[in-house]
């Protein structure tokens, strides 16, 4: 279900990767295959050469060529701008990227290359399909800063710091609290408060991962008092038109889904065909990009009912200074996306941590900044992020929502006022990843 921390990441990513998580290459190279550097090893004290950082991305994953590259591109843009301005205390940022191909074997190989060969001081904006090397990163004491939590690694291992934060113990054992993660219902509360929504549909495939995520969304909606209509289509031969007709018949206010991006576009086209009109067709943060008109070209009505929710400031909100700086630095990009902005914020996070270290930037120093009591918001680009290690999960939590709606000719338009004001005290519901 959507929510801060790991659950928000699940809500952003599940629709894009759920069909591949079960089929992705799960083999891993054993730890003994590497000569790895000792845990906690650091660059020599007083080293005034460039600061080496690594960026892991599943560029050529089975999901598609650009599914996992947004955070990488945003981080690279930030570091290029930083180097143009003199780097950090005169030290340039030397960025080393590695494409793991979306497999566990490839991920372990990339971890080996970046940690043992390139000897990076940190990883930044990691976005991978199978983070098989997460334990090795943690064992080496190399901080992974601002990664996208596709799997449970960021709520399992110390030294890994996701873009959404974490309250979990992260002791290297089971993820979360004894294998259970928690997320809030703030997204559903938001639509109920702002739009009086009462009936929601959840669309999924007849595929285990898709169905499991749909159950999470359904549970969160019911906890907020919605009447929930569940729709399931055959993955091989999906009849989206029949689903769209039933949505119209059921007088649905909101539509959530557990299908891939292509399926979303087909569902929207079917809804336009049968005249199904809803308050919001809620999509995920991976689709929070500037290619909506092209991706949903056959669904003008549904396209203009597309909403997204997340934990970072709308990348089209150019009236905000920090967003404007991001857009200026990436003005030559073919598209802009929320994941690019979050990668930019991850690079900023590393930079602020490194500046706090003075002349000796080490993993230990970076982590002192990451673990401080003060939450981090990347100049207002992120909802405040913090890392704690609570012995028990919270029963309720104050959680905020960033929301935007697509409008042709205007792009993504921020909704509900500033994201820091869209806040609710909501229950935290447990699930197993």
TrEMBL record:
Family assignment from sequence similarity: Belongs to the leucine-binding protein family.
Residues of the Leucine-binding protein domain: 50-409
Annotated protein name in UniProt: Amino acid ABC transporter substrate-binding protein
PANTHER family: BLR6548 PROTEIN
Assigned keywords, A-Z: Signal
Region (Disordered): 31-52
Stored InterPro entries: Leu-bd (IPR028081), Peripla_BP_I (IPR028082)
């Amino acid at each position: 279900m959507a929510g801060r921390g790991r659950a928000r990441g699940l809500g952003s990513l599940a629709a894009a990767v759920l069909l591949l998580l079960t089929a992705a290459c799960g083999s891993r190279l054993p730890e003994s295959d590497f000569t790895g550097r000792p845990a906690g090893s650091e660059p020599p004290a007083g080293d005034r050469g460039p600061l080496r950082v690594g960026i892991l991305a599943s560029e050529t994953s089975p999901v598609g060529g650009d599914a996992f590259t947004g955070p990488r591109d945003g981080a690279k843009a930030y570091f290029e701008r930083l180097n143009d301005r003199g780097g950090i205390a005169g030290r340039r940022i030397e960025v080393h990227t590695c494409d793991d191909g979306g497999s566990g074997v490839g991920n372990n190989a990339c971890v080996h290359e970046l940690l043992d060969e390139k000897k990076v001081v940190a990883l930044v904006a990691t976005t991978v399909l199978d983070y098989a090397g997460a334990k090795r990163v943690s064992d080496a004491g190399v901080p992974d800063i601002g990664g996208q939590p596709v799997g449970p690694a960021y709520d399992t291992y110390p030294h890994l710091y996701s873009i959404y934060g974490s309250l979990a113990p992260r002791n290297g054992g089971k993820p979360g609290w004894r294998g259970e993660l928690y997320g809030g219902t703030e997204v559903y509360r938001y639509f109920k408060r702002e739009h009086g929504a009462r009936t929601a549909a959840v669309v999924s495939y007849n595929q285990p991962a898709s169905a499991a995520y749909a159950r999470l969304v359904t549970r969160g909606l019911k906890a907020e008092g919605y009447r929930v209509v569940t729709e399931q289509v055959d993955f091989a031969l999906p009849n989206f038109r029949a689903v769209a007709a039933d949505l119209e018949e059921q007088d649905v206010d909101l539509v959530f889904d557990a299908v891939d991006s292509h399926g979303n576009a087909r569902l929207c086209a079917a809804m336009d065909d049968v005249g199904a009109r809803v308050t919001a067709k809620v999509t995920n943060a991976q689709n929070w990009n500037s290619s909506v008109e092209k991706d949903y070209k056959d669904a003008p009505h549904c396209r203009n009912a597309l909403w997204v929710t997340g934990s970072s400031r709308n990348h089209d909100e150019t009236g905000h200074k920090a967003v404007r700086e991001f857009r200026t630095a990436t003005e030559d990009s073919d598209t802009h996306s929320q994941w690019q902005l979050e990668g930019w914020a991850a690079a900023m996070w590393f930079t602020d941590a490194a500046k706090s270290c003075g002349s000796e930037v080490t993993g230990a120093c970076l982590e002192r900044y990451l673990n401080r009591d003060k939450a981090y918001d990347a100049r207002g680009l992120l909802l405040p992020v913090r890392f704690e290690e609570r012995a028990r999960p919270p029963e309720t939590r104050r959680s905020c929502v960033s929301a935007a709606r697509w409008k042709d000719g205007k792009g993504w338009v921020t909704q509900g006022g500033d994201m820091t004001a869209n806040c609710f005290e909501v229950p935290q519901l447990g699930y197993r990843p």
